[in-house]
Amino acid sequence: MILSLDDTLKEVGEFVQNCLGPLSADDFAAISKEQWLQWFSQFMMQLVATFVLFLLVKFLLWKPITNMLEARKAKIDEELNQARETNAKAQALKEDLEKQLAEAQDEVRRIIQSAEMDGNARKEEIINAAKEEAKARLEASKQDILREVSNKQQEIKNEIVTIAFEAASKIVEHEVDREKYLDVVNSIIEGAEIK
Q1: pTM (two decimals)
Q2: What is the DSSP string of 115-152?
Q3: Integer Cα distance of 134 and 137 in angstroms
Q4: Looking at residue 110, what is its pLDDT?
């Protein structure tokens, strides 16, 4: 059964009228003493019932409810503290990783600089070794040339002596001492070299 709006408002008004009792009357003077006592006794019973309900809640339900709320608050506080600690650890880890990254980059730079310095030093060593080898080869070539010159000079001396001896033999048909002749020729040649 569906009530209309007017019927609903009428029923709500009657309910309020019954709940308020004599207070809903326009004239308090029209309230009889019995109605007044009845109202007062109902008021006192409701007051006592409310007080008893308050005491029951206070002594029977208040501590478990507050303990439950405190436990929940403690758990939430603990979770918040753990979250803060985790956040602080994460921040510290991030800073540590950034520091390690910076140190690694510095180390890479130092390694590169060291490698460049080692490369330059090695390059200088190779250049110096090549220069020393070139000097040694040049010196060896000079020594070879001097030996070759000395050998050629000796060959020339020997040919000159041989030619001179043959010429002298033909000029002088008698026997000349070859050793004495060589000593004279060598002294002449050595005298020519000194000049």
Answers
A1: 0.35
A2: HHHHHHHHHHHHHHHHHHHHHHHHHHHHHHHHHHHHHH
A3: 5
A4: 93
